[in-house]
Amino acid sequence: MGLKVGMTTRKYISINRTTKSTATRDLQDLVDKNVFVRKGVGRSTAYQSSLEM
């Protein structure tokens, strides 16, 4: 099996080649638009597609 993480800020930065500030802002915007659901807090925060819920 294994863990199903989804998107993290670090992955988002790597994929989009952006800064941490921009990644955090973009991911929060996607949470606000109900595209992603935030799981966890702090460094362990991950984002999962709301369609998978």
Q: Which features does this protein show?
A:
53 residues, two-stranded antiparallel sheet, 2 helices, alpha+beta
Description:
This protein is of the alpha+beta class. It has helices at residues 9-16, 20-32; strands at 36-39, 46-49. The protein is built from two helices and two strands; from the N terminus they run H-H-E-E.
Offer a concise description of the structure.
The chain has 53 residues and is an alpha+beta fold. It contains 2 helices and 2 strands; from the N terminus they run H-H-E-E.
| Uncertain stretches of 5 or more adjacent residues | none
Distance between the terminal alpha carbons, to the nearest Å? Answer: 19 Å
Largest sheet: 2 strands, antiparallel
Task: Please state the overall shape, judged from the principal axes of the Cα atoms.
Answer: globular
- What Rg is obtained from the alpha carbons, in whole angstroms? 11 Å
The total of helices stands at: 2
Enumerate the strands of the largest sheet in spatial order, edge to edge or round the barrel. Answer: 1-2
Structural class: alpha+beta
Q: H/E element string?
A: HHEE
Counted up, domains total 1
What is the element layout, followed by pairings?
Layout: H1 9-16, H2 20-32, E1 36-39, E2 46-49
Antiparallel strand pairs: 1-2
Helix pairs in contact: 1-2
